[in-house]
Hints:
It is a single chain. The chain is 35% helix and 16% strand. It is globular, with a radius of gyration of 17 Å. The protein is an alpha/beta fold and 263 residues long. The protein has a seven-stranded mixed beta sheet with strand order 1-5-2-6-9-7-8, sandwiched between helices. A two-stranded antiparallel ribbon has the order 3-4.
Amino acid sequence: xxxxxxxxxxxxxxxxxxxxxxxxxxxxxxxxxxxxxxxxxxxxxxxxxxxxxxxxxxxxxxxxxxxxxxxxxxxxxxxxxxxxxxxxxxxxxxxxxxxxxxxxxxxxxxxxxxxxxxxxxxxxxxxxxxxxxxxxxxxxxxxxxxxxxxxxxxxxxxxxxxxxxxxxxxxxxxxxxxxxxxxxxxxxxxxxxxxxxxxxxxxxxxxxxxxxxxxxxxxxxxxxxxxxxxxxxxxxxxxxxxxxxxxxxxxxxxxxxxxxxxx
Length: 263
């Protein structure tokens, strides 16, 4: 299927990626002090004065700390594990490394646009933080947008990406459902244009899904979405997600989506 890419979108995508050499895997972002998580950006730029929280899903130390990550936490609609290990490709490329790498490529693009960037974890060697803590980081930062980056672990026959938005939980997230839906649409459209990946064939509708069982969405007081960047169990998606150059395209497309939402 041929994808229509407006000239303005292509120009922005090229500008975002220009001069941004792909960093080595696992070295995408210098460690950020866990106490603040904030990197100050220049005052100039279209996103000056905006704060964006990037949440790279999972963490490299989760698998070796099952007791800690399996601890149950309250996500409003029930109790769920603090965090999970995540999935991986058939070749063993783990989701936690994928999300960390994409976050590391996205961070400097947003900073060049003038945004302040907050990461929910400082490296890919730790444990957690819990989904409750990740949501709290976005709330405390008074984020203008929160993007949680993931790779799906669906059946291998399904492929494509989808964006997950929070469903309404009256009395808890009434004020963020509508802006989150707009963020979800902007991110979906930019990601489709920038990567050429199709909408998920196995879940959601037109690349969008609404859920009320995810703590990171339920507990957020700021506009928030999750993006499943592809199905890591699908051979075609996995090949793209394992390619550093393609992850650079993913990051540039995500930055385009955030900019559209915040402009």
